[in-house]
Structure formats: C-alpha cells, structure tokens
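Deliverable D4.2, example record:
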Amino acid sequence: MKLKLEDIGTKRKLIYIKGGKGRKDRYTLLSDVVIETLSLYLKLYQPKKRLFPGQKEGRHITTRTVQRIFEDAVKKAGVSKEVSVYSLGHSFATHLLESGVDLRYLQELLGHKSSKTTEIYIHT
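Output generated by the structure prediction step:
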C-alpha cells in the first residue's frame, strides 16, 4: 500500500518492498500480466507519487480500503470459497512452487527468515 512509483521495475520485472515483514526490504517478482495491468492502471489514474494514493494528498491507501476492494471483487467474481487478501500471497507462493521455483528462492521472495515458515505458508 505504501508503494511508490519508483518501487516498480517493469524492465527487470521486480517490485521493491520497503519495510516488509520484520521491517526488511526485499524484491519480489512482477508477472507480465501484472505489468500489463499496471500499465493500464497508470495510464487511467495517473498517480503522482504513490502507486495507490489515499484520499488525502501524499498519503497511501489504507489496509482496510484494500480489504474492502478485495471483498467487492470476490463478490463480483462469484467466489464462494473463504478467501482474504492474504490468500493472494499463498496462491502466488503455491503457483511458483508448483512451477518448479526453489523453496529457498521462494523463501527470499516472501521475506521469510526460516524455510519452515515458507513451508507452513504454502501448506507443504
């Protein structure tokens, strides 16, 4: 939510997460679909500093607003399974693992200190 425009690296397909889990900085992946969607979003909304600005000038979107947007999207999509914003991270990790991504690399992308945490996170 606190992402700034300069945190997005479309050429390298990376996003820079500042102060994530454990207040650590890290990079994680951007898919071609996300890059394409972000490109459309940027053209349409033309944010100035924050990727997802809040209502007040210079502020970022709140966690609760993200949750509400996600809940609305789930309803519109007709998803009946119990899901949350955090389900997206679990799905991301699971799909990468199923695609053959190494568990240690996945651990780094997710910002986990322990591979055990990553294993629990992806339900292996």
